[in-house]
Amino acid sequence: MFGPGLKKEPLAVRESHELLAGVVDRVARVGRLRVPKEVAVRTIMSANTGVALALITRPEMYPDHSISAEVRDITFTGILTPQDSTTPDDARPSALATISATVEADPPSDLTAAELGLFVEWLRRLAPRL
Predict the structure, then answer these.
(1) In whole angstroms, what is the distance from residue 109 CA to residue 127 CA?
(2) Could you give phi then psi for residue 85, rounded to 5 degrees?
(3) Which pLDDT does position 106 carry in this prediction?
(4) Residue 101, Cβ density class (10 Å: 0-12 exposed, 13-18 middle, ≥19 buried)
(5) Which of 1, 5, 104, 7 is nearest to 45 (CA)?
(6) Could you give the C-alpha distances from 108 to 18, 38, 79, 85, 124, in angstroms and in order?
(7) Are 36 and 128 contacting, i.e. CB atoms less than 8 angstroms apart?
(8) 27-47: buried (b, 16+ CB within 10 Å) or exposed (e) per residue?
(9) 121 alpha carbon, distance to own chain's centre
(10) 101 in Cβ contact with 33 (< 8 Å)
(11) Distance between CA atoms of 126 and 96, rounded to whole angstroms?
(12) Cα–Cα distance measured from residue 75 to residue 56, given in angstroms and rounded to the nearest whole number
């Protein structure tokens, strides 16, 4: 499904990416995302693919399959803000990700398409720096 020799990307790859992007968008809109949506989607997909390939190609290294839960927990810690509280260090990136997701999902009518594009681009650039 994810092989480099494929001439055409399978529909399942696009569908899985779109499903994950929808979930990540909902997480961003409630203020739980620490990184831009695109970064979160790529990170989760990469972790998922890596674990699956590791379990398939090196089953002897992972006899109890606990690596899946371990990678999931580490990935979520890196991309999500804490569930019950937001520390000062987490507040700004989370706020930027939330604003970006909200503006993209429901664009303000008083901004032109160009202005909206610039605004979202600036938010994406600022989030990793904070």
Answers:
(1) 24
(2) -155, 155
(3) 77
(4) buried
(5) 1
(6) 24, 21, 27, 29, 18
(7) yes
(8) bbbebbbbbbbebbbebbbeb
(9) 16
(10) yes
(11) 8
(12) 20
Q: Which residues pair with 80 in a beta bridge?
A: 33
Estimate the crossing angle of helix 88-105 against helix 37-57, to 10 degrees: 100
- What one-character-per-residue DSSP string does 3-28 give? -TT-SS--HHHHHHHHHHHHHHHHHH
Give the pLDDT band of residue 109 (cuts 50, 70, 90). Answer: confident
Residue-wise pLDDT for 117-128, tens only, equals 888 788 777 766
Tokens 């606990």 sit at which residue? 66
Q: Are 124 and 36 in contact (CB under 8 A)?
A: yes
CB-based contacts of 105, cutoff 8 Å, min separation 6? 25, 29
3-state class of 119 per DSSP?
Answer: helix
Residue 50 has pLDDT above 90, yes or no: yes
